[in-house]
Amino acid sequence: MASLALKTFVGLRYYTADHHRHHPTSLSKPTTTHKRLHIIAGKSSPKITGRNLRVAVVGGGPAGGAAAETLAKGGIETYLIERKLDNCKPCGGAIPLCMVGEFDLPLDIIDRRVTKMKMISPSNVAVDIGQTLKPHEYIGMVRREILDSYLRDRAASSGAAVINGLFLKMDKPKTSDEPYVLHYTGYDSKTGGAGERRKLEVDAVIGADGANSRVAKSIEAGDYEYAIAFQERIKIPDEKMQYYENLAEMYVGDDVSPDFYGWVFPKCDHVAVGTGTVTHKGDIKKFQTATRHRARDKILGGRIIRVEAHPIPEHPRPRRIADRVALVGDAAGYVTKCSGEGIYFAAKSGRMCAEAIVEGSENGKRMVEEGDLRKYLEKWDKMYWPTYKVLDVLQKVFYRSNPAREAFVEMCADKYVQKMTFDSYLYKKVAPGNPLEDLKLAVNTIGSLVRANALRREMEKMSV
Ligand SMILES: Cc1cc2nc3c(=O)[nH]c(=O)nc-3n(C[C@H](O)[C@H](O)[C@H](O)COP(=O)(O)OP(=O)(O)OC[C@H]3O[C@@H](n4cnc5c(N)ncnc54)[C@H](O)[C@@H]3O)c2cc1C
């Protein structure tokens, strides 16, 4: 069953034709000279004269950076509004290998290439799960302040105007060709530290402003259930750091989280130790202490250099498009359950939404309408809905009790499971299975779960 589920863990591999170089941020007015996405189509929406379509992207994380770059390259007058240009998003920073290729990420922005992963059970049984990786395969570990500013800079060098501003609200148009008026506080050398209230008129808006999205509120997109994730960056002695050089750890158990996992991820000169939960948010610090405790021998002598926490969406918002406004990334709710992965999906959704706008507007020459933006949504749901569903099921089956988690870790020792899991994670595509191995795995999985249930019943009896 798990194998079938893993095989449904789909996504498509996609490569950009262009190869970019790293350029410094430009704060100049958007230019439309970098047109590499060319659309030829026939459409009836009104032509725009004397200028190109204007789009504001609110939020400069992976979703916003990727969206702004694609828009600018596609001939759109693009504005990227980010409240904090040195923002350091609380995040584990693990990215799949395919993201490096699809988004042409230079290797020097990747702190560590993880090739070994330990999955550690409630009773501290550790299983190595990177054994099937090929020599060139790895999980990338990035610091978000580095990744996000790289993507924003690249959007700027493609022609987007990056505005250092806090988006406040927007006035919606009354007719199909009136603009949206965005209100924001601008921070730049002219305003000093205080900021200045400003307005920006645009034809369409992409909300890439994360889990607490104000754009989502503006379009009454509705709420989602969320997890709270907590993380400490810990500087550990050099000899301890050697152990984590290319190794990440995942801890499961009631102590570290009732419904998620605890992690130790290696960064440039420190480790990130964290955990998350949806069901027991008030106990998050207790779970964090337990995660640190489980890793205690390996991080002994460490010094906490940063403490961070942030919500993680659990599912998409009820509404992701309204008129000429679309939500992407965490603002839309695109984090997978079970793994808590959202960086790749944020960048990918930002790019896909921008492509739909470029296409719908014929490279910025025509006005867009809701139907153009909906194309992004249809494509997205078709590509990724099964992935979200499968991970949802896996989380419900394997994270529900300590015996089930022991079964899960036991199952992870199987090389076939490792290969299927890594292929799905690293490439976001269907991993071709082997019928005989599938059958073997199904039998083993059922065996593990039966043992897990028997163990749980025994434990319940003991606690009566
Ligand atoms: C502790 C933790 C660990 C995680 N670990 C991983 C991991 O290892 N791998 C993984 O893939 N995912 C991980 N995630 C999830 C991942 O961080 C998110 O899915 C991802 O950051 C979403 O990107 P985004 O661009 O949609 O939003 P964000 O990264 O949240 O970016 C939103 C941007 O908008 C800006 N902004 C917000 N409001 C405004 C406003 N009003 N005006 C202007 N700008 C605004 C913010 O400053 C920010 O830069 C983790 C999350 C947490 C909390």
TrEMBL record:
Catalytic activity: phytyl diphosphate + 3 NADP(+) = geranylgeranyl diphosphate + 3 NADPH + 3 H(+)
A GO CC term attached to the entry: chloroplast thylakoid membrane
InterPro entries: BchP_ChlP_pln/prok (IPR010253), FAD-bd (IPR002938), FAD/NAD-bd_sf (IPR036188), Geranylgeranyl_Rdtase_fam (IPR011777), Geranylgeranyl_Rdtase_pln/cyn (IPR011774), Geranylgeranyl_reductase (IPR050407)
Class of this enzyme: oxidoreductase
Location of the FAD-binding domain: 54-84
Keyword Nuclease: no
EC number of the protein: 1.3.1.83
Source organism, top-level taxon: Eukaryota
GO biological process: chlorophyll biosynthetic process; photosynthesis
Molecular function (Gene Ontology), one example: geranylgeranyl diphosphate reductase activity
Annotated metabolic or biological route of this protein: Porphyrin-containing compound metabolism; chlorophyll biosynthesis; Cofactor biosynthesis; tocopherol biosynthesis
Any one Pfam family match given in the protein's UniProt record, by short name: FAD_binding_3
Keywords in alphabetical order: Chlorophyll biosynthesis, NADP, Oxidoreductase, Photosynthesis
Function: Catalyzes the reduction of geranylgeranyl diphosphate to phytyl diphosphate, providing phytol for both tocopherol and chlorophyll synthesis.
Family: Belongs to the geranylgeranyl reductase family. ChlP subfamily.
Name of this protein: Geranylgeranyl diphosphate reductase, chloroplastic
Organism the protein comes from: Camellia sinensis
